[in-house]
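Input structure tokens:
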């Protein structure tokens, strides 16, 4: 896009030299890419029999991340991982990445190298190729927009609107770790039994989440899930999204929520219930999905082969029953949405 002549340029980065550097480092691409970085637009080959899936995320310094608690590499990793998780939640195969950045005067060449290193660290295990982007100056803050495309077998995507009463509700991995990691980054770590290793494992879960691409793809290709969503805002809010779009209610068993040993210790130390952290926590990038009861055994066998836990946490109810949680005393209480939301003050 054309530059306004009113933006001052105390920047050390030069746009064209920077893009040339990107071209050198990432210009060589493989399968499906007819033209990557360097032309007016990327040229990608689409496969017949597949639906094209696309997602994008905008990250703003001071809103989504601060460079005091996360490195440039962490920020890049997480931006890519969040998008990969969205494709995973559709049951798709992530393929092509575009990265747009607006760079402030404080963001120099080596920091931006770090940013792209983080992005590629998240992408490499999935064979995702960087095929383009855009570069601009910013007056101060760093803005990072990541767009990821991919494919899913035609008609097989995991949508949010397919859950039906009686379906079983599952989540991957453990919940709440990322929130605990964020709290540990923001404050000085309280003295925790388990020590530095426990602290760093929770922080790692916050900074380096693992999108569940293989599980999402297995669910979609085998037709095992009726609906799915990834947990980016937190279970409490993301379950509401799934239920609203499916026009159903749900009953969740608080005792069933999967929590890590690290989170248990952390919660104990705070005098908190780990299940509350699990319900509230955002940015776990686990998958939440629903399954008809007749497929429950197939989920068990998927779980045995998976690299993370898959846990049944409840059941879908008719809309009229609402959304409820069974507490430790066996009482049913209304489900509260305590997840983070922009513009909510
Ligand atoms: P245009 O003027 O058409 O926007 P640019 O000079 O901005 O073209 O971009 C040239 C090439 O470099 C394009 O292929 C574009 O996708 C790529 N590109 C530009 N900025 C970035 C970036 N930050 N990350 C990745 N690729 C980029
Ligand atoms: Mg451009």
């Amino acid at each position: 896009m054309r530059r306004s002549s009113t933006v001052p340029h105390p920047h050390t980065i030069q746009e064209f030299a920077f893009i040339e550097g990107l071209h050198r480092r990432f210009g060589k691409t493989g399968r499906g890419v007819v033209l990557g970085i360097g032309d007016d637009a990327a040229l990608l080959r689409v496969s017949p029999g597949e639906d094209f899936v696309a997602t994008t995320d905008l990250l703003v310094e001071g809103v989504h991340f601060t460079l005091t608690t996360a490195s440039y590499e962490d920020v890049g990793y997480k931006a890519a991982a969040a998008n990969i998780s969205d494709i995973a939640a559709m049951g798709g195969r992530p393929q092509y990445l575009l990265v747009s950045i607006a760079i402030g005067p404080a963001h120099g060449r080596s920091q931006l190298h770090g940013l792209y290193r983080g992005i590629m660290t998240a992408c490499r295990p999935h064979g995702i190729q960087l095929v383009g982007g855009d570069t601009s100056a910013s007056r101060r803050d760093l803005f990072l927009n990541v767009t990821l495309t991919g494919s899913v077998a035609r008609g097989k995507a995991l949508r949010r609107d397919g859950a039906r009463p009686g379906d079983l509700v599952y989540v991957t991995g453990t919940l709440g770790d990322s929130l605990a990691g964020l709290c540990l980054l923001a404050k000085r770590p309280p003295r925790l039994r388990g020590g530095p290793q426990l602290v760093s494992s929770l922080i790692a879960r916050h900074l380096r989440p693992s999108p569940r691409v293989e599980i999402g793809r297995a669910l979609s290709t085998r037709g095992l899930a009726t609906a799915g969503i990834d947990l980016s805002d937190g279970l409490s809010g993301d379950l509401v999204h799934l239920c609203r779009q499916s026009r159903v209610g749900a009953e969740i068993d608080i005792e069933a929520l999967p929590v890590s040993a690290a989170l248990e210790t952390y919660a104990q130390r705070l005098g908190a219930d780990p299940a509350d952290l699990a319900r509230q926590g955002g940015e776990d990038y686990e998958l939440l999905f629903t399954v008809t009861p007749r497929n429950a055994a197939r989920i068990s066998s998927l779980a045995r082969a998976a690299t993370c836990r898959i846990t049944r946490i409840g059941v879908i109810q008719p809309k009229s029953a609402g959304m409820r949680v069974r507490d430790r005393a066996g009482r049913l209480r209304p489900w509260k949405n305590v997840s983070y939301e922009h513009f909510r003050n």
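The radius of gyration is 21 Å. The mean pLDDT is 92.
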